[in-house]
Predict the 3D structure of the following.
Amino acid sequence: QVQLVESGGGLVQAGGSLRLSCVVSGGTFNYYIMGWFRQYPGKEREFVACISSSSSTIYYGDSVKGRFTASRDSAKDTVYLQMNSLKPEDTAVYYCAADSFWKLVPSRGSNDYNYWGQGTQVTVSS
């Protein structure tokens, strides 16, 4: 029903940039809080960023603050994650997620998101 499809991952050198995209279909994108998470092998998913439906509230994880920028385009039902100054420790599978339940502020917790994309691999070489 509701589908999230990420794209834009790949291999990049340290200091480089990537932009991830996540297209939402089958739902009301403009009502959803959107989140970005990443997962290292053998570890739980880590919060990266989240953005409210109006883009008025955006939170970032401490490890990416100042380097990553989340945004959304209501006309395209798409959320983006612009990743700059990439570091080897940014290497992970990145997931976009949607929270379809109305909240006052977006959540940093993965359990609050009920729709997930398939993930896209980001690899940063040193």
